[in-house]
Write the structure tokens for this entry.
Amino acid sequence: MSNCDLCVVRNRAICASLDAKELEVLNSIGRTRKVGPGESLIWEGEDSVLVANVIEGVLKLSTNTEDGREQIVGVVYPSDFIGRPFGGKSGHGVTALTDAKVCVFSRRDFDAFAREHPKLEHKLLERTLGELDRTRRWMLLLGRKSAPEKLASFLVETVERLGGSGCGADGDKPGQHQLILPFSRQQIADVLGLTIETVSRQFTRLKNEGVIDLPSRRVVTILDFEALVAEAG
Amino acid sequence: MSNCDLCVVRNRAICASLDAKELEVLNSIGRTRKVGPGESLIWEGEDSVLVANVIEGVLKLSTNTEDGREQIVGVVYPSDFIGRPFGGKSGHGVTALTDAKVCVFSRRDFDAFAREHPKLEHKLLERTLGELDRTRRWMLLLGRKSAPEKLASFLVETVERLGGSGCGADGDKPGQHQLILPFSRQQIADVLGLTIETVSRQFTRLKNEGVIDLPSRRVVTILDFEALVAEAG
DNA sequence: CGGCAATTTGACTATCCTCAACAGGGGTGG
DNA sequence: CCACCCCTGTTGAGGATAGTCAAATTGCCG
């Protein structure tokens, strides 16, 4: 009966803390939902009404200034958790970058369930602590790194996060990776706190230096991973 | 017997989730410790060996690039929690900005205690979620705001965080606040991702515009809070 | 009152942004 | 199937913001 048995993130998401019986209850209050690129699940400033687990795809978390500048403050991949449990407004929007499948819960229901299942809350705590670590590392990039360092860091991190999750990583030669970016140039700029032009120029520079190749818009072949790591600062 | 009864943050820190008996156990595995300005409690990259509650004072969380650039990734105030429970290395150093008093625990002991006390873990989860929200808001500042917006935002947030906690807030006239900054100019620069010179120039500009006054190095009198909010973007 | 560190100020520079034009490529409709 | 078009990305020129380096000043502490 439970879809969860077939769920590909069953053992990596916070659900991994639950036994079969508990999982059935959780399953009964959630439902899966598909979202297409550009479609939002949660809007910035809205009351937090739903939370979710990512099953497939990549989504961005983003905030905007009043005059429309955007900053992407997080990127979530399969098995990641999204939303703001336990009250409050969501400080950022959540929007799909690719076709995505998520397992959504009403925040109210999820909160109640979580409070009765300490193991679930524990998993969520570990995940949140990890996300906070990652976010703080990102602050160093935003505040202190140059444009070349920013793009190099971005590519290194994207290889690491996409690498294990089957979104298009493959190494025939050591230090070589094929990346299919779930980001447009504008979105990369919004992650790095740069403009689209600066991102583009850094891409072509890396290509001219033989560090990467750009077979098409969304594809990056990394020819010299070590050089990227070195340049990431 | 328990020091906790006298603790000024007893009802605001994560300890608020515990009853008298539980608190006594927690108290038995922790001890208070004083740290002076510039003194570190935790170093970046180190294995996480201790966690703590802040009782008094202000501390910074900071990361550095290999070549010595620094970014402050968090500032903690009384009742805040510091350290990285549940394994891992601490991704940032923790250093006192003022004289501070903290209630420290060995991470190992704390982890074990927390796992047995879901209400404590719940409080910690809420606190961590809040900190993540705050951190993400800070990313918008680092990635997308100009120097004038950055300093204005910094002053607004510092008023709000110091305001309630008795560290030197007072309003005789509406919109007027007296701030005693726990930061040097360099530290403000490290929070905002700017240089010390730029921070200084923005301070004098605000002073010349009559938005603030600078009676001495560490003191800022805010004359027109609304103007700051408007400039914060 | 003197010494020292923190901060401010000034002059100059570099990086990144802005604005504008151009190119490429993927999809659609003829 | 091909031509066209539109969107995304690239390239270029010029400018603004913030950084760098250096010197002057201010407080602060003994």
Q: What stands out?
A: Helices of chain A lie at 20-29, 107-115, 118-144, 147-163, 185-192, 196-208, 225-231.
